[in-house]
Amino acid sequence: MSHAELAAGVWRIERSRLVGAAAKLLRDLDEAEDCAQDALMAALDTWPRDGQPDNPAAWLMTTTTRHKALDRLRRRAMLDREHEALAADDEAAQTHVVPDFVDHLDAARDQAEIGDELLRLIFIACHPVLPREAQVALTLRLLGGLETAEIARAFLVPEATVAQRIVRAKKALNGQAFELPGAGERQQRLAAVLAVVYLIFNEGHSAGSGAQLLRPALCDEALRLARQLQHLLPAEAEVHGLAALLEIQASRLPARLDAQGRPVLLPDQDRRRWDRLLIQRGLQALELALERAAPDGGAGPYTLQAAIAACHARAARPEDTDWAAIVAGYDRLLALNPSPVIALNRAVAVSFAAGPAAALPLLDALAADPQLKRYPFLAGAQADVLERLGRFTEAREAYQRAAELTENEAQRELLLARARRLAS
């Protein structure tokens, strides 16, 4: 691997932390992202000439991002003639100490509780001045490293809508104190934080575009964040529910591709390849979530989804799956969150619990929902049900329609292969 390739690879991994460190200093997300980009350009220029540093990530953080953020602060100070701030920045740069505008607010306690720059930035990006959609979109952009188009697919909204949300969110946060919220306010922001972690994992579990079905680095990052949240907020049922869901879903990753890298659907997976340790962790987290669920309000959406995932995890063979329990789980989930995607998942479960004939009318009704008009998984579910009913011509057309709608090359090839099989 060349020095340039190493620099680019380390930068992709560390990008979110670089943005977080710069944002704490600059209180401006656009400038923070510029600083992180400057760090990459400096590494691409310096490493091929001077050689790879012993600790590339630390070089990017300490030697580059923070110094560049200090340079920007220094220029601000000069322009505003804030001589005291300029002197403080100069002293910090000379002693390699970064002035932290957050830490004066009971920093020792907060840092001990969080202990992770990435989690700090998630809670900051989920600021109450932003609407929920903007909180999630901004945090996915800053911390998940997702492009605007990928976020748009996760939300089932136009790309331009997400782009506007991100721009407006950055403007709204500029000038805000980039400080870790206190315990009470952290609680209020938790729902948005959980949604961010969930969507980051989903993009890694089934990439919306590109040649690869999986983006394991995103799954790993979401798992790490979920586990950190468990440590931070052990009394929160939904924190454990989300962790349970991600652990169980991640357990299947080794079986989701065959030896040629082609997708393998859940009924066809070799369950011996599922990660039993992750399943065990997930089931333990689910127990914690159910223990902590409010007696009056019941389990939350992540806990309910984890319980559904657990039905698959406990089944040694596909035919052992308790599909009736899965349908009942989706019924509870729909009552809590009447989403068309959840309704689609329920219809798929009905096709296995009660047969494809019972599910087809449910899928046909969902086809009228504007949010699912271009959703490839609806067409794929219709194709599967039609195939199981022996309506092969219609099934082939549905597989082809699903292939046209998906932007993931691996998923498209799987759908086209199924269409070709029916044609022959």
Strand content: under 5%
Strands, count = 2
Biggest sheet overview:
2 strands, parallel
Quote the distance from N terminus to C terminus. 45 Å
For the residues shown, what is the average pLDDT? 82
Which stretches are low in confidence, meaning pLDDT under 50 for 5 or more residues running? 92-115
Helix and strand succession?
HHHHHHHHHHEHHHHHHHHHEH
Main structural class = mainly alpha
Q: Considering DSSP H and I runs of 4 or more, what fraction of the residues is helical?
A: over 70%
Number of helices: 20
Shape: globular
Strand order of the largest sheet: 1-2
**Rg for CA atoms:** 24 Å
Structure report:
The chain has 20 helices and 2 strands. It is mainly α. It has a two-stranded parallel ribbon. The chain starts with a helix and ends with a helix.
Summary, kept brief:
By secondary structure, the protein is mostly helical.
Features:
424 residues; mainly alpha; Serine Threonine Protein Phosphatase 5, Tetratricopeptide repeat; two-stranded parallel sheet; 2 strands; 72% helix; 1% strand
